Amino acid sequence: MKMKSLGEFGFVNMIRKRFAGKSNDKIVAEIGDDCFCFQTGKSDICITKDMLIEDVHFKKAWISPSDLGRKAVEINVSDIASMGDAQPKYLFVGLGCPEDISSEYIKKLYCGIKKACDKYGIIIAGGDTVKSDKLIISATAVGECGKYIVKRSGAKNGDLIGVTNTFGDSAAGLELLTKFGAAYKFGKEQKFLISKHNCPQARLAEANAVARYVSSMTDASDGLYVSVDLIAKESGKGANIYIKRIPLSRQLKKVEPEKSKRIKSALYGGEDFELVFTVHASKAAMLKKLVPSVSYIGIINDTKKVKYFHNGKEEKTKYCGFKHF
Questions:
Q1: Residue 209 has pLDDT above 90, yes or no
Q2: Model pLDDT for residues 12-34, shown as the tens digit of each residue
């Protein structure tokens, strides 16, 4: 079977079933979650890795090297935030560099990495550098876990499905860059959407605040549709999602007047890096007081199917976002 047929998540499942090490009582979260977490003598450790590849995840003409460096850190911190009560501590940076890239570009890239690391108190602990045809940033973040570690697999029947902030902004920003290029004179709202794509913010503080109350959580790196599906499948549950409740930004509504396109960006567009979680209905109001940006978009059930509803009618949906294979 070719990788195109197997797909990204099919590949991950194959690794989990055939090649991953056996689980033991020291492993808290295994392959398939946002981080691998394991127990040590004093505190639990969580580890995650993310890659950014030129012409797959970014184009150098569309993002500054400093912003690219910051993004490489933020997306790793977002994975650690997804585990709830966790703090990033160390970063290892693997860099694949074309031999004709300027040292000034790489210096600015590392300035962005350092700035984001300083924001979270992360120490750059090492890495590796090799020659490559395209620019590749492979970052591994190591964090410490607290008492309330949250996995994707804990959703329960009747739990509400909550999200932070808004969805679709990053995808809309990418579409603007693809359509017009970075040199175009964008308006204020368009610049906001582009900044959401180039300069994402991990929701670490929000995740720490809700960790003790939520039953499952992930971040929307691959889009809201994928995030809900992952929580449902890992928990052995289903869900009803109410499309009108999905939060959209004022900027997205102004730039994209067509409702169907806005919803498509929100559901299938990746790299929003917002939290998607489940919580018992009795705790929902209190949690929203802790994190005012929270919205509730659906409910967990035991159907093992995720269904989407609009104006009381079920909407047939099929994933149409980016696929690596």
A1: yes
A2: 677 777 776 667 778 888 777 78
Strand order of the β-sheet with 84-97 is: 27-29, 36-38, 44-53, 136-149, 84-97, 123-131
Q: Are strands 214-219 and 123-131 parallel, antiparallel or unpaired?
A: unpaired
Helix (H, G, I), strand (E, B) or coil at 269: coil
SS3 at position 157? coil
Rounded to whole angstroms, the Cα distance separating 231 from 35 reads: 14
For helices 224-235 and 259-268, angle between their N-to-C axes, nearest 10 degrees: 50
Give the model's pLDDT for residue 320.
Answer: 54
H or E element in which residue 225 lies: helix 224-235
> The tokens 């990053």 sit on which residue?
170
> Closest Cα to residue 274, out of 155, 145, 161?
161
If one counts every other C-beta atom within 10 angstroms of the C-beta of residue 100, the result is 5
In the numeric block, the tokens 């047939």 are attached to 316
Q: What are the pLDDT digits (tens) for 257-310? A: 999 999 999 999 999 999 999 999 999 999 999 999 999 999 999 999 999 999
- Judge whether 67 and 198 are in contact, CB under 8 Å: yes
3-state helix vs strand vs coil in the chain, percent to 5: 40, 30, 35
pLDDT digits (tens, 9 = 90+) for 142-153: 999 999 999 999
Q: Given the structure tokens 């991990």, which residue do they identify?
A: 202
Give the C-alpha separation, 304 to 291, whole Å.
Answer: 29
* pTM for the structure as a whole: 0.91
Side-chain half-sphere CA neighbours of 162 within 13 A: 28
Length of the chain, please? Answer: 325
Q: How many CB atoms are located within 10 Å of the residue 230 CB?
A: 20
